[in-house]
Write a structure and sequence with these properties.
20 strands; N-(1-d-carboxylethyl)-l-norvaline Dehydrogenase, domain 2; 11% strand; 2-enoyl-CoA Hydratase, Chain A, domain 1; alpha/beta; 8-stranded mixed β-sheet; 7-stranded mixed β-sheet; Rossmann fold
Length: 708
C-alpha cells in the first residue's frame, strides 16, 4: 500500500485502486484545500501505472455538504469546482464515487461527474442551492438530467429538497442494503469493470426534448409561477435544465454559469444567503460560554391544555421527552389530550406518522389536575390566559411545588416576565419561552431572558430548542419582546389607514404583493380581533393620548365582530370558508368613527403610503429594539420575522430589506409621511435615533452585526 495524506484529503493506493478520501470536518465543505486535494489525487492516480481505478469517498458519516459558502464573499477560488469536476469526468481511468452518507450541492455535483456512483439504502442527496437564491453552478443542472428523467431532475433542482437515493432512477449504479455491505459491494463492482464499461462519462449521454418532457417543463413553470412568487432563482433553474435538453453539454455549462452569475447578483440571493448565516448566528450569544453548566431537561410539564399548551406539549413528545399536562378541571384536560390525539391521527392519515408513532407519542403525555404532580419536572412551561394576575398565581404555585433547579418558563407573548418572576423566590430560574402558534408547527422560539435569568438556564433552553427542532432567538424583556412589539406599529398604521379612507383590501394587497403571507386585516381576523382589543385595554396608559388608536377595530369587537371564529370581523366569512369577503359595512363604520374623531377621510392614499406606514414603521421599531439592546443583533430580528411572521425570505427579513432599500431612503420616506400627517405623523412616524444616525452616514444595519 502506498499513500499520501494532507489535512483534509487522504490519498491511498491498495492493490490497483487509488482511494481519495475527503476528511474535512464537520461536513467536507468543498473549500479550496479540498478541491486541491481532489484534483491532485485524481492526477496522481492517472500518472501511476499501477492504478486501474479511482474511488472518491469520505471518512465522515456524510459524503459532502457542498460548497464552502464563506468563499462566496471572496478569496482564492482556484481551482474552481467546475475545473475539478472536469478533471474527474475526463479521467482516462474509471472514477467511482462511494457515498457513505448524504451529498448536497457541490458534493452531489462531484458524484455526478464521476463515472459510477455507489451508495447505501436510506441515504438522501440534494441540490439545495435554490434556497440560497442561486442554482447548482458546477454542472449539476447539466449532468443530473442526463442520468435521470426530467421530472426528477427538475423536482430536485427547483425545490432544493433532499431526495431518497432510491427515488433517483438512473443516478446510482449500486445501492447497498446496509452500511456493512457497502465495502463488499464496492469491491465486487470494481471487479466487474471492463475496458468497455469502465468509463461512462455523464457529459456524453445524449438526451432529447420529446413531447412528454416538454409537458413536464410547462407544468413545472406553471407550478413555480404559482408557488415561488418573488423568488428569482427557481425560474433560472428551469432554464438551465431546459438547456441540458436543447444545447450541447459545453454550451449548457456556459448557460449554467451565466445564469448562476445572474442569480448571484440579485437582492434575492443576497437576502437568502444573509438569512442562511442569520439563522446560524442566532445561536451565538454572549450570555454563556462553553464552561457554563447545563441543566438536564428530561421531564417537562405544561400548564394549560388548550391549543397553545397542547401544541407545546407535542413538541416535546415528538422529541421523545415525557410531558405532564396540568389543567385544574378534568374536563378541560381530557379535551386537550383528545385534541392532541386527533392532531397525531390526522398526521398518520397523511402518512407522516405510523399508528405506532401515534401511540408512542401519546404514551409520553400524561394529565393531572394537581400541581403536586409537577414536583419532579425539570422544565415547566406556563401557557395560560394572557393576564398578569393569572400568570403570577400560576408561578406562585410552581414556586411551592417544583424541585430546586427546575426551570420555570412563561409562554407569554407580551407581558413583563420580570414582574412574573417576582411571584417566585427563585427569579434566576425564570425565563420566557414564547412559542408561536401553531406551536407544534412554527419553527421560531423567542427565548426571553429576564434581568435575573441565570446563564445556565439560558444555555439549557437554547440547547433544548435544538432538541425539539426549533430555531431559538434570545431576546430581552419589553412589551411584546421583539416580534409582537414590532407588529404593533404595523397593525396600528393599518387601522389608522382604514380610518383615513383606505380599504382593508388595498392595505392587505399591498402587504401580500410585498411578500407577506397575508395582510394585517386578514391576519387580525384569523388571530381574533378580541386579542388585540384586550392588549389595547391593558396598554391604555401608552395609547390614551391618541383617541384614534384602534378605533375601528374597537367598534368591530364591541359589535361582536371578532374575526374568522364568528364568521365576521374586518371581513365576512361564509360558513366553513376561510376566504375573506369585503364588507361595505366596515367602510361605513370607519367613516362614522373618522367623523366622530375629527379625522379627514381622503381618496388619495397610495400603495407607497401603505407600505411606508405599515412596513417602514415596523422596521423603525426594530431599530429602537436594537438601540435598547432587546435584540442583540439585526439578523436576530430577521430570523424572528421570517420564521415567526412569514416575512419573505427572499427579502432576508425586515432589517436586511432596509439595508437593500437603503436606510437613508427608509429615513427620508418616514420623514416625508411624518410631515404630511401633521400631529399624528409627529407622534407616530418619527425616525428612531438609530435610523437617523445610520441615514446620516449612509450606513447599514449590517454594520452593527456582532458575532457574539
Amino acid at each position: 500500500m502506498t499513500g499520501s495524506d494532507n489535512t483534509v484529503v487522504d490519498y491511498q493506493v491498495s492493490g490497483n485502486v487509488a482511494t481519495i478520501t475527503m476528511k474535512s470536518g464537520p461536513v467536507n465543505a468543498l473549500s479550496q484545500a479540498v478541491r486541491v486535494g481532489l484534483q491532485d489525487g485524481v492526477n496522481q492516480a492517472l500518472s501511476d501505472d499501477s492504478v486501474n481505478a479511482i474511488v472518491i469517498t469520505s471518512a465522515l458519516p456524510l459524503f459532502s455538504g457542498g460548497a464552502d459558502i464563506s468563499e462566496f464573499k471572496g478569496g482564492n477560488l482556484s481551482p474552481a469546482l467546475p475545473e475539478v469536476l472536469n478533471t474527474i469526468e475526463q479521467a482516462t481511468k474509471p472514477v467511482i464515487a462511494v457515498l457513505p452518507g448524504p451529498a448536497f450541492g457541490g458534493g452531489l455535483e462531484v458524484a455526478l461527474s464521476c463515472h459510477h456512483r455507489i451508495t447505501v439504502k436510506g441515504n438522501k442527496v440534494g441540490l439545495p442551492e435554490v434556497n440560497l437564491g442561486i442554482l447548482p453552478g458546477a454542472g449539476g443542472t447539466q449532468r443530473l438530467p442526463r442520468l435521470t428523467d426530467a421530472a426528477t431532475a427538475l423536482g430536485m433542482i427547483v425545490s432544493g429538497k433532499p431526495q431518497p437515493v432510491t427515488s433517483l432512477k438512473g443516478v446510482f449504479d449500486v445501492i447497498s442494503d446496509s452500511a456493512e455491505d457497502l465495502s463488499g459491494d464496492v469491491s465486487d463492482y470494481l471487479a466487474s469493470l471492463t475496458p468497455e464499461n469502465g468509463i461512462k462519462r455523464t457529459c456524453d449521454i445524449q438526451i432529447e426534448l420529446d413531447d412528454t418532457t416538454k409537458t413536464v417543463f410547462e407544468q413545472t413553470r406553471a407550478q413555480v409561477a404559482k408557488t415561488a412568487k418573488g423568488f428569482f432563482a427557481p425560474e433560472k433553474c428551469i432554464d438551465c435544465v431546459y438547456a441540458a435538453y436543447t444545447q450541447p453539454f459545453e454550451k449548457g455549462l456556459e448557460t449554467e454559469r451565466e445564469l448562476f452569475m445572474q442569480c448571484m447578483n440579485t437582492p434575492q440571493a443576497r437576502a437568502q444567503q444573509h438569512f442562511f448565516f442569520a439563522e446560524r448566528a442566532a445561536g451565538h450569544v454572549t450570555d454563556f460560554d462553553k464552561s457554563t453548566p447545563e441543566r438536564d431537561i428530561n421531564k417537562v410539564a405544561v400548564i394549560g391544555a388548550g391549543t397553545m399548551g397542547g401544541g407545546i406539549a407535542m413538541n416535546f413528545a415528538n422529541a421523545g421527552i415525557p410531558v405532564t399536562m396540568l389543567e385544574l378541571k378534568e374536563e378541560a384536560l381530557e379535551k386537550g389530550l383528545a385534541l392532541i390525539r386527533r392532531n397525531y391521527e390526522n398526521s398518520a392519515k397523511k402518512g407522516k406518522l405510523t399508528a405506532q408513532d401515534v401511540e408512542d407519542r401519546m404514551a409520553l403525555l400524561t394529565g393531572t389536575t394537581s400541581y403536586a404532580d409537577l414536583s419532579d419536572a425539570d422544565l415547566v412551561i406556563e401557557a395560560v390566559f394572557e393576564k398578569m394576575e393569572v400568570k403570577k398565581t400560576v408561578f406562585q404555585a410552581l414556586d411551592e411545588v417544583c424541585k430546586p433547579g427546575a426551570i420555570l418558563a412563561s409562554n407569554t407573548s407580551t407581558l413583563d416576565i420580570n414582574e412574573i418572576a417576582t411571584a417566585t423566590s427563585r427569579p434566576s430560574d425564570v425565563i420566557g419561552l414564547h412559542f408561536f402558534s401553531p406551536a407544534n408547527v412554527m419553527k421560531l422560539l423567542e427565548v426571553v431572558k429576564t434581568d435575573d435569568t441565570a446563564p445556565e438556564v439560558i444555555k439549557s433552553c437554547m440547547k433544548m430548542a435544538k432538541r425539539i427542532r426549533k430555531v431559538a432567538v434570545l431576546v430581552g424583556v419589553c412589551f411584546g419582546f421583539v416580534g409582537n412589539r414590532m407588529i404593533e406599529p404595523y397593525g396600528r398604521e393599518a387601522n389608522r389607514l382604514l380610518l383615513e379612507g383606505a380599504s382593508p383590501e388595498q392595505v392587505d394587497k399591498v402587504m401580500t404583493d410585498f411578500g407577506m403571507p397575508m395582510g394585517p386585516f386578514t391576519m387580525g381576523d384569523m388571530a381574533g380581533l378580541d386579542i388585540g382589543y384586550y392588549v389595547r385595554q391593558s396598554r391604555q396608559e401608552h395609547i390614551a393620548h391618541d383617541p384614534t388608536y384602534g378605533a375601528v377595530a374597537n367598534r368591530l369587537v364591541e359589535q361582536g365582530r371578532v374575526g374568522l371564529k364568528c364568521g365576521k370581523g374586518v371581513y365576512l366569512y361564509e360558513e366553513g370558508s376561510r376566504k375573506p369577503v369585503p364588507d361595505p359595512q366596515v367602510l361605513k363604520i370607519a367613516s362614522e368613527e373618522a367623523e366622530r374623531l375629527g379625522v379627514t377621510q381622503r381618496d388619495d392614499i397610495s400603495d407607497e403610503e401603505v407600505l411606508v406606514r405599515c412596513m417602514y414603521t415596523l422596521i423603525n421599531e426594530g431599530a429602537r429594539i436594537l438601540e435598547e439592546g432587546i435584540a442583540a443583533k439585526p439578523s436576530d430580528i430577521d430570523v424572528i420575522y421570517v420564521y415567526g411572521y412569514g416575512f419573505p425570505v427572499y427579502r432576508g427579513g425586515p432589517m436586511k430589506f432596509a439595508d437593500e432599500l437603503g436606510v437613508k431612503t427608509l429615513h427620508d420616506k418616514l420623514c416625508e409621511y411624518r410631515d404630511k400627517l401633521g400631529e399624528y405623523g409627529q407622534t407616530w412616524l418619527q425616525p428612531s435615533k438609530l435610523v437617523t444616525e445610520l441615514a446620516g452616514k449612509n450606513g447599514k444595519f449590517s454594520d452593527l452585526q456582532k458575532k457574539g
